[in-house]
Amino acid sequence: MRTSDVIVVGGGLAGLMAAAVSASRKQSVTLLTFGSGSLPLASGAIDFFNADNPEVAIKQLPDTHPYAKIGSKARDGAVKFLCDVAAQANLPYNGRLSAQIPVVTAVGTLKYSALVPESMDASKLAAKQKVFVVEIKGLKDFYASMIVDNLKKYFPAKQFETAKLDLKFLGGRDITCMDAAQLLTDNEQPLANELKALNAGGDDAIILPPIFGIAGNFSRSAVQTQVRAEIFETTCLPPSPPGMRLQRAFMKYLQNNGVKFFENSKVIRGVVEGKTVKGVVVETAVREKTFPARKVILATGGFYSGGLTMREFDKPREPIFDLPVFFPEGADNWSNVQLFGDKPQGFSTTGIFTDDSLRPVDSSGNVLFDNLHVVGANLGGCDKIFERSAGGIAISSAYKAATV
Amino acid sequence: MSDNTKAIFTGDRCLSCTSCMANCPVMAAVKEYRGPKLVGPAHGRMHFSQEDIEESLNYCSNCKSCDRACPSGVAVSTLNMLQRAEYYKKHEHLRHEDMLAHGERMAKLIRMMPFGATFSNIGMSIGKTLGIFSALGLAGERNMPAYASTSFKDGFKRIKQAPASKKLVMFTGCFINDNEPQVGQAFVKVMNANGYEVLIDEGFNCCGSPLVVTGFLDEARQHADNNVARILDWKRKGIPVVTPCTSCSLMLKEEYHELFGEHEMHEAAQNVYDAFEFLEILQERGEFNENVKPLNQKLLYHVPCHLKSQAIGLPAQNILEEYKVAKVQTADAGCCGISGNYGFRKDKYEISMKIGAKLFERVKQQDFDKVISDCGTCRMQIHHGTNIKPVHPIEILAKAYA
Ligand SMILES: Cc1cc2nc3c(=O)[nH]c(=O)nc-3n(C[C@H](O)[C@H](O)[C@H](O)COP(=O)(O)OP(=O)(O)OC[C@H]3O[C@@H](n4cnc5c(N)ncnc54)[C@H](O)[C@@H]3O)c2cc1C
Ligand code: SF4
Ligand code: SF4
To answer: In Å, what is the CA distance from A233 to each residue of A116, A122, A143, B107?
Structure first.
């Protein structure tokens, strides 16, 4: 086995980004992942921080926060790099760190993110005259009237209209947005015809579930060029076409840049010599296989993805390198695991702590391995759900780890 | 790994995340398929107590893309195959299902007749012309794989090998034995060049993969029991079993145990290697014969689904490139669509061609000298979809050992 310059463990957003950035710097990269990561389930929008100006809010965070280790250079670099990767797959993204962009959710509320696919950027919604919310016959979990009711709370003065189109998608299973996106690909004309018939004008907007394909912006362009009103996509329940588009954009970039991408490959431990990681060991059905590397980036996700585990109560651990995981002590903090509460949760700040190069440290701050870097959801010290920072931390930590 | 890899125990780990569905090529191709049955948000953890049987499951091709996407190690595809077998407990098999499941039996019958292979190949083309294929439920658009006039195992006896202290048993697989003996010959040449004498065990059955996907689970179990007992015999003698067919190696290494859950299956599996996996292990031990000559070729590599599932990286690419035999570019165009005998069924032909379309497009760019793929049915599908005939990577390596 040839030694890779970089091995990335984990194929979620952080792992894909770490592999892509490493490959862009002419490193030989191998990515090992077990499971396809949470990107196909995610909205495709990248949240950096829940504040009107994320950039300013991030700079005020304490030193223990992952963003403080990552630094502003890596955050800016990550934003630019992600937009480039997406653009190369004809998937334009809008946004910057100093402001947030509204996105219409599947239920008609607005949520704000720093980076959003152009197709979901609802910045101009407020200025539109009339908004058409369009439901597709047979598509689950998308109700135009509910969306209108909720949007009216934001835009009381605006005119809304709902429509229900029959695109002949029925005649099989219940369809999800992913199914509709696949059925619509290369078959956009019936939808374009129906939308034209709405007679929406150049100052109007059309809101649809995210069904414009699972690759790039091709399907949306095919329809948008024929319709005067601007078309916006909402978010949806998983599997999520916008998340899949971003995943595919990354996969294409990795393929074009020679990254070796191995699925179904569960890393069970590292090969270490003193403070140096020499490689990682993958478990197959019957034997083990060692992948040697000069640098390892650990992007295995948090509790949800198995990057952190909790076999014993109060004893979370990182299963591959047995890295120390920091967490709030004692049962008191645990009783209040209320996932979407109004305070940061002790549980969800649990994770690995690092130095400024994102290398794991022990409780006294000593670096444990010189060439191991930790990125994404398994970083500790902040509540990514509460702060709405998961995506931003994933891509900017990955950028940092790949460039130090 | 322990007994918790048995498929029916893995269903409990399902998080209903839908990743399996997001990665299923058949769901992407047809809306009639409702997707993996016993897992995912639609069905929860209903297990086998459930009475009704999901008919649309017959769309599943057992390509295993779902398993590879799952973050929780659920054996999604094997659960589907177990459900399919349940279905056939109450439903008759169709004639073409019987035929496709028993390729091994057919090949034997044909070879027992004088000039059998020639006649049957003529018969195949007459059958096709007269629409008999179609009437049987086979895809009339396809050429049935032509039978070689001498099977690999029959021809094997005439291969002269220097006796060596290092031995391995070759599990030929039906396709190589009956249809592409040249792949088997290349395998022998490569292993000989690496100091191994190749043995054949006439007592092996078909690995059972075509039986599993057509719901003949009891028969597959008999094959498994026989093969496992023989592999354990070889294991006791310290002789590994190696196969150049990725669907056979996956079946022997992983699927027997997933399906039937006997501990011996796992023990036997430890003695089974895919051909290039074996060569890579020799390389790691410093025992690989590096005396190869560069062929100055550019190869396009279609990585079979059943190799991706084995989590052994890409040993063929590694070896061909490491010793500068050839430049290898992966096709990265997804599943070829054929999935064993799936694409041979009349009602699945179109689906299989739709799934393969991306790969065909890639191959038709023709920016390479040859296409390689470790799986026999993938090679057939690529040939059918592009008119370009791929080879097994071991044929390339055999050429490099002048
Ligand atoms: C439903 C959902 C919606 C989301 N929506 C948004 C959103 O709107 N905006 C936003 O910014 N973020 C969102 N996120 C979060 C976003 O996707 C995060 O960036 C992500 O969770 C963190 O990425 P990650 O790569 O660190 O971890 P993950 O995506 O969890 O990936 C970790 C990967 O590592 C693999 N792995 C784990 N252990 C091993 C091992 N031992 N060997 C090999 N591989 C291993 C896992 O299987 C997985 O593939 C959402 C997440 C989910 C689940
Ligand atoms: S084995 Fe293939 S066809 Fe069957 S459910 Fe899984 S991904 Fe779909
Ligand atoms: S990918 Fe795995 S965990 Fe997710 S729904 Fe499918 S079987 Fe369940």
So the answer is: 11, 9, 14, 55
